Amino acid sequence: MEAQGKVIAIPKSIEDIAPYWVQKVLQRDLPGVTISDVDVKGSICDGEGFMSEIVAFDARGTRDGKSQRYNLVAKMTKFTRPLATSNALEDDIQGHLNLERAEVGLYSVVVPELLSATTESSKKKAQDKDEGGHHPTDLFFVAKCYLAAADPSSMVSVRVLENLKTQGFSIKPDRQALSCDEMMLTVGALAQLHGLSHRLELRTGVPLSEKYDFLVKYTMNADQTVALYQNPLKEVLAAFPDQTDLVARLEKIDVQSVLVGVLKSPRVKVLNHGDCWINNIMFKYKGDVPTEVKLVDWQGFTYFPPTYDLALLFLCSADWDVFHMHRDAILAHYHQQLHSTMEQNDPSGLQSYTLEQLKADFRADCLYGIISRVMRMAILRPDLDFLQMVQEIKEWGVL
């Protein structure tokens, strides 16, 4: 798959990030820009970085007679690079390709079409900015991308993005759980993604799963299920040896049924980030107060019910206090933000999705959230917060 720039070569190494190449990339969105110098800072990585090398660089030049400087990153992937955190997927080159195609498709195809889903009336209303300092019609949840392309024949891909670090964004250190305020910002970002994608689907009349063939489809064989879900449960039992009954309940979850069954579900589906947890969320702060959010690493980009993203977020990013004490307020904020992205005169689909329906779906989909957390157990160690969340979910009758 290749998109956004069929005549622009995909760099195979840091040495290929040169002034002429950067100029061609930027001229797509910045006509007339001339790049005279590129200062490559080297590899950076806030997250796990097991699939891609993220290279920061500054480009200097001129545009319209004025000096310009652009702080950028090139996210470069070689599909043959093994997944260091999962031996089960080490040789799954096709799996790597699918993940890359999803992220390339998001930046090169989906983002422009989501922007087009905003109506002229919505744009008119956007003259007044919201409290976060963003126009409602802006895609505030995603970084600006200048080039997204993949070449399966050469087994490489690239995304050239604005450098969020230089704008004051950062990932929380040491995988600290998100605060209530950080969760509010994050679910607001998900609400915009979900709402606009649903508007796009209503406008085109075509399910987005058919429109976008690059969306990730989660299918697992029995061996992968054991490797990625059943085995980490041993760590839960080791951490909480007195919870044998609870672990037994977790062992009975049919992971394959949960992941594959959703594809056949008649529920309304939207575009999901698919991997929205601590490592893939960047915040900007004013003092200690989070003011803006960006979602990164879109390789898990898929088409699921909206509460799948929310369940994953809560189980993999919140602590017990936020989950237990602030969950309803966070879900209510998500619901309000979701409806603010919808066409008010269209009663179909998510426009008629009530808060009570949302809460019920969230509770049911926490099973998916548990699966997502267990599969990250090597990174997110079993702790008391996780145990308390699972115990409450059990009380709902989900387990």
UniProtKB/TrEMBL annotation:
SMART domains: CHK (SM00587). Pfam families: EcKL (PF02958). Residues 159-344 form the CHK kinase-like domain. This is Uncharacterized protein LOC109462205.
